[in-house]
Every structure is written in structure tokens, then in C-alpha cells.
Specification:
heterodimer, A: about 400 residues, alpha/beta, 7-stranded mixed beta sheet, 5-stranded parallel beta sheet, 15 helices, disordered N terminus, B: about 290 residues, mainly alpha, two-stranded antiparallel ribbon, 2 strands, about 75% helix, about 0% strand, globular
């Protein structure tokens, strides 16, 4: 009898709860549901050195925001997937984020090839995409506004490489690059700069899965270059640097910050990378957002991608707060209103942003990666570059300009 | 002319690197009659074990190679006994597919133990020797010599030892060998040990030339497979000839085609070979 009573009580309780739920207005139900945000970063593959820290930065912001009560009274839930620096794996993971997890936005796609493959899934499903890829073609996709990037595009990067090579006294510049979506446009804008100064350029596209590049290096050296630009990722660039060393190349070497890094220096003999110049878009070192990020993740000098994804999550959450709605379309319609509102209050983190938004102030976010002002098609309009050089096996800062 | 000669030299060097794992691949195919794609992970494991012995324990490269050979051989045998052995009765295709899965598992175990970062051996890098316009790397010569010694040792083992003869007997005709009292199970274990060990050594040689990461072996898998098909699946001298031919073909192709198409040379070689001479250059059995 007692048991029956218990059962009946439970049953009654459940029925009452159900009835109560049904009676609640719709928005109240939604209030309980978390806002889902996805990261799609490279945890393995060529971009593997960057992804884990990127995710850590996003998680730190999400935890902070949740501790402060979430956004629109809802918790933020982070779902992290690995794109393996591989378009096919990236598409699979993006499908899962969009179809299963139903995220509002995907943050942090890194390799241009992955972003190019994932972007159409995002705009078709009205999911917002923030990327750190540099290929020009990406913002030229018909993305209807569902995409912004914080990485300077290749034209800008190519110009900086060309100008820097000329400044080093190089007249003949040779570019060695694997097949990437940005190799060609980068080469073209570099060539324009070098040719205008009376120089010559040439390029060789190589297969980045080979154990040695001796013949490729032979071909490059026949051009008699003053400077060689290394356009690859870390594994192939380390092999090319070794083969250049063996071949006795003594000219200027220019490489990207994402390929010649401490990990590369740790894996090659000391002389191999010596004197290589490293160019990368520079984070806004010393800015308030940058200092905050450093404190938040406990890493002394976070790489550009980590600073960029930190800005992605702050911007997306503020856009959701301003819209009062967590859909991808709401993010699309409001992201520029929080990144660059004319005369807006300068904001460097989402929580301060929420307060400003609640106080009906206009918001102008200046992030850890830079001012984060976006053009019509989603490019950033301004960025600084960081010039470094390998000196005695260490990466030394030459200048930020 | 210099251009051709240099390409020829470069081709022989890369060919010799591929030859060692190709011998391992061919030996396993000859005796067990299935293509073992897990050799990619065996090469990676060998490269990491030698790295641990060299950069971690401070051993010179030859003892590190020996350790890599032994450890990879044991890993190969254990993996075979646990996973592939019980599938052998279901035909070569099933085992081949299972070996791809095995490859993924082993590759990720390497990732788990050693991490995802690139590593390099603790050895100085030497400048190339120059003969007029031609360049030859001392390190490549060393790898070439190591590869040649390993190939010779393998040849002598197969030719003159009881076990080698038994292996060849099983490769030639398993039923006849069994009638003669040769235990195929024991032969299989030794073959897998040798095949995996050689793949491991090949991984080290590739790592010496480049850097190592969990995908080191995977990157050369196609070339190794192409070399084995080209030389004649299951033929050990064929694997060597196939690897050298493929290395030279890839380098020569660079003179006339863009470098991006280098991998395509391997595919085209397989295609042509399977179309016109399915048994390969030195293969005897029409596979």
C-alpha cells in the first residue's frame, strides 16, 4: 500500500510538472536551453600546434561569461571539434556541429582549405562562421554576410613579404610553396611589389608529402635567388630548410610565423633555420584585451590565432546579447554593431560589453588581435605585422610595424 | 646533362629510402599473401623508437636503428597475433582492410605516447659534397649505405639460412612446404617480425633525412606500395628495383612536369604496371 502511494505521488507530481511546463510561455522554455557555440580548430595535422590553445582561450571566456550569469540569462555551452587540418574531416565535424549540436556560430577554422570547404555549410544553414584563414578567395565566397575573418588577407600579406624582401636588398625572389588556396594570390601581390622595384620573381609549387625536396631545391637555386620565401607548413618547411642548408644556400630566407616556430626550431639542428626571417600578422600586444587574454589562459605570449579566436568568441557573444537572440542570423546582423559602432564605447571583453549593451550604449570592440573592424565582405580593414628572426636558435623580435 | 645526372642521384637516394620498408612490405606479402598497410605505422613507430634512443638516451644512430628494428618487429608480431591473424582465413582483402584500421590505431597510440609535435634526431646536419655542378649529401650517402647493408643482409638471410630457405619455400608453395614439415605459423611470425622491423628501420632512415611526426610513415605509404607493385608484389629484389625505379622516375618527372604532380608518378607507375605486366618487373607469380 505504501509503495502504491509513493508511486501515485510520483505520478501525480510528474503530471503536475508536465502540465506546468506546458502552461509556461514559449520564451520561458527557451530560457533554460543553453546557447551553443562550436569551435572547429586543428587539434591534429599541420595546424595541430595551434588548435589546443585556441580552444583553451574560448573555453576560458565561456567559463567566465557563465560564471557571470551567461548571456540573455542562458548558459553558453561550448562544443569543440577537431578539423585535423583536413577539409574532409572539417566538413564532417562542421556537419555534426550544425546538424546535431545546432550551434549558433562556428569559431576558429584555421587552414584556408578547411574554411573554404566548411563555409558553404555555414551560410546554407545560417550558422555564423569566424575564421583565422588568410586566403583572399574566402571572403569572396557568396557567404551573404555569414562569415568574418580576423586574419589579414593574402594580398596584404604578399605585399608585406615583397616589401620586406626588397628592404633586405633582395632583387630576385623565389617562392617555394605547397598547393594552398593562397599561394597564387600571395605570389601575385608579392610579384607586383618586387617588379615595380625592378626585381624578378619565380615560384615553384611542390607536393608537401614527400620525404625530400632535393630536386625542388635544385630548381629554386637555378633561379639564383637573393631571397627564398617558404610558403609551407611546419613539417615540409623543416625538410626544405634542411635541404636548403645542405645545398649551401646563403641568401635571405623569409617564412610565415605559422610554419617557422619554436616547435620547428626544436626539431632541426641549430644552424638550419638560423637567420630566417619570420613574418606574421601581429596581435595587439600591450592592448587591454591582450593583457586580459594573457591572464585568462596563463600563456605569456599567445600566438596570433589564439588572440583572434578570443576576439571571435567575445564578438559573437556580444552580438547575441545585442540581438536578444542566439540564431546565426542574429549574429550576422549584429556583429558589426558591436565590433565597430561609430563613436561607441571602447570595449575589450564580452562581460563589459554586456553591461554597455544593457545600458543601451553603442559598442566598439578592440580585441587582442587588433581593432577587429570588418569590411563589407568580412575582411579586417587593418592589421599590424610582426617581423622576427631566428638568432642563435631563438626567435628574436626585429620590429612590429 | 648535369640536370639529368643530379636528378638520377637524387632519385637513387629517395629510392633507397623507400626500398627498405618496401622489402618489409614485400616479405609479408610473399609469405602471408596480403598487402599489410600497417607498415606505415610500423615505419612511424621505428622512427619514434630510434628518436627516443638517440635524442633521449643519447645513443648513436646504428644502435638506435637496431633498437628500432627489434621494437618495431615485436610490435608488428603482437599486432599481427592480436588482430590480423584471425582474419587471414577470410581472404587477402579483409586482412588488407583490417591492416588499414590497425594502422590508424597504432598511429594514434604513437600520438598518445609521443605527442603530436615534430621531432628531429640529435645529429648534426652536414653540407652537401660538391663534384663540379653535382651535389651529394653525406647523410644521404650514409642512409644509402645503411639501406644497402640491410638489403644485402636480407638477401643473405633468405639465401643461406634455414629460416630464410623455409620462408622462401612457404612463399613459393605453402602446401608443399607444409608437407615438408615446415611450420607455417612459425614462419609467419618470423616474417612479420622481419617485415615490421624493416619498415621501422625505413622509418628511421626517412626521419634522418627529414623530421618525424605521427604521419611520417603514412606519407610514404603510397610510394612504398607503388615500389612493391612496380617491382613485383612479393619479390624482395623486385621491391628494391621498384623503389629505385620509382625514386628516379619521380625525380626525372620533375624536369618535365610541375612538382605538384610528383605523387601522380607513383599512381601512373602502378596503373601502367598492372595494365601491362601485372606481375611487376621481377615478380614471378601473376598476382
Amino acid at each position: 500500500m505504501t509503495e502504491f502511494l509513493t508511486d501515485r505521488r510520483t505520478l501525480l507530481g510528474g503530471a503536475a510538472a508536465l502540465a506546468g511546463l506546458a502552461a509556461l510561455p514559449k520564451f520561458a522554455l527557451a530560457q533554460g536551453a543553453p546557447i551553443r557555440i562550436g569551435t572547429l580548430t586543428p587539434l591534429t595535422g599541420s595546424g595541430g600546434p595551434y588548435g589546443p590553445l585556441m580552444v583553451k582561450a574560448v573555453k576560458a571566456v565561456v567559463d567566465e561569461v557563465n560564471a557571470a550569469g551567461g548571456v540573455l540569462g542562458r548558459k553558453v555551452e561550448l562544443i569543440s571539434e577537431d578539423d585535423q587540418t583536413n577539409p574532409e574531416a572539417g566538413v564532417r565535424a562542421a556537419r555534426k556541429l550544425i546538424d546535431v549540436d545546432k550551434v549558433s556560430a562556428i569559431l576558429g577554422t584555421w587552414a584556408s582549405s578547411v574554411t573554404t570547404a566548411v563555409a558553404p555549410l555555414c551560410w546554407e544553414s545560417k550558422t555564423f562562421l569566424c575564421t583565422t584563414s588568410g586566403a583572399d578567395s574566402i571572403t569572396l565566397l557568396p557567404h551573404q554576410g555569414y562569415l568574418v575573418r580576423t586574419q589579414p588577407n593574402t594580398k596584404l600579406q604578399g605585399r608585406k613579404f615583397g616589401e620586406f624582401a626588397l628592404a633586405q636588398g633582395a632583387k630576385r625572389v623565389f617562392v617555394l610553396s605547397p598547393q594552398t588556396p593562397f599561394a597564387q594570390s600571395q605570389f601575385e601581390s608579392m610579384t607586383a611589389i618586387v617588379k615595380a622595384a625592378g626585381g624578378e620573381t619565380a615560384m615553384l609549387i611542390y607536393d608537401d608529402k614527400k620525404p625530400a625536396y632535393r630536386s625542388e631545391i635544385d630548381e629554386a637555386l637555378r633561379f639564383k635567388p637573393d631571397a627564398i620565401v617558404l610558403g609551407g607548413y611546419t613539417p615540409d618547411t623543416s625538410v626544405i630548410l634542411k635541404d636548403l642548408f645542405r645545398a649551401g644556400f646563403s641568401g635571405t630566407k623569409l617564412a610565415f610565423g605559422y610554419s617557422v616556430n619554436q616547435k620547428l626550431l626544436d626539431s632541426v639542428p641549430a644552424d638550419v633555420a638560423e637567420k630566417t626571417f619570420i613574418l606574421s600578422p601581429s596581435p595587439a600586444e600591450g592592448s587591454k584585451a591582450y593583457e586580459r587574454l594573457v591572464k585568462l589562459i596563463g600563456v605569456a605570449s599567445p600566438d596570433p590565432y589564439t588572440t583572434q579566436i578570443y576576439d571571435h568568441i567575445n564578438l559573437v557573444l556580444m552580438a547575441i546579447a545585442l540581438a536578444g537572440d542566439s540564431s546565426g542570423t542574429a549574429v550576422k546582423d549584429n556583429i558589426r554593431k558591436v565590433s565597430q559602432a561609430p563613436g561607441g564605447t571602447k570595449i575589450d571583453n564580452a562581460i563589459d560589453g554586456f553591461k554597455a549593451i544593457a545600458a543601451k550604449q553603442a559598442v566598439d570592440y578592440d580585441g587582442a588581435s587588433g581593432p577587429c573592424d570588418f569590411t563589407e565582405i568580412g575582411d579586417i580593414s587593418d592589421s599590424k605585422f610582426r617581423y622576427e628572426q631566428v638568432q642563435s636558435g631563438k626567435i628574436a623580435l626585429v620590429k612590429i610595424a | 646533362m648535369t640536370l639529368l645526372l643530379q636528378a638520377l642521384i637524387n632519385g637513387l637516394m629517395t629510392g633507397a629510402l623507400i626500398a627498405v620498408p618496401a622489402i618489409g612490405f614485400s616479405a609479408i606479402f610473399a609469405v602471408l599473401r596480403y598487402p599489410n598497410f600497417a607498415i606505415a605505422s610500423y615505419a612511424t613507430i621505428g622512427a619514434f623508437v630510434a628518436w627516443w634512443a638517440n635524442a633521449g638516451l643519447g645513443l648513436p644512430i646504428v644502435p638506435a636503428l637496431a633498437i628500432a628494428f627489434a621494437v618495431t618487429g615485436v610490435v608488428g608480431v603482437v599486432a599481427e597475433e592480436i588482430s590480423l591473424k584471425r582474419l587471414r582465413d577470410n581472404g587477402a582483402l579483409i586482412v588488407a582492410i583490417a591492416s588499414i584500421a590497425l594502422n590508424l590505431v597504432l598511429e594514434n597510440i604513437v600520438r598518445f605516447i609521443f605527442g603530436n609535435d615534430m621531432k628531429g634526431y640529435d645529429l648534426p646536419l652536414a653540407r652537401d659534397l660538391r663534384f663540379g655542378e653535382l651535389r651529394i649529401g653525406p647523410q644521404q650517402l650514409q642512409s644509402l649505405a645503411l639501406a644497402a647493408i640491410i638489403m644485402a643482409a636480407m638477401f643473405l638471410f633468405l639465401r643461406y639460412t634455414r629460416f630464410g630457405k623455409a620462408m622462401r619455400a612457404v612463399a613459393d608453395n605453402p602446401d608443399l612446404a607444409r608437407l615438408k614439415g615446415i611450420d607455417p605459423a612459425r614462419i609467419a611470425i618470423v616474417t612479420v617480425f622481419l617485415g615490421a622491423g624493416l619498415s621501422g628501420v625505413g622509418g628511421v632512415l626517412i626521419g634522418l633525412d627529414t623530421s618525424i611526426d605521427p604521419l611520417t610513415g603514412y606519407r610514404v605509404l603510397l610510394s612504398v606500395f607503388a615500389a612493391a607493385v612496380l617491382g613485383g608484389l612479393g619479390s624482395i629484389p623486385g621491391a628494391v628495383v621498384g623503389a629505385l625505379a620509382l625514386g628516379v622516375a619521380e625525380e626525372l618527372a620533375l624536369i618535365v612536369t610541375p612538382a605538384t604532380y610528383r605523387t601522380a608518378v607513383g599512381f601512373v607507375a602502378i596503373l601502367i604496371m598492372l595494365t601491362f605486366r601485372p606481375r611487376g618487373i621481377l615478380g614471378e607469380r601473376a598476382a
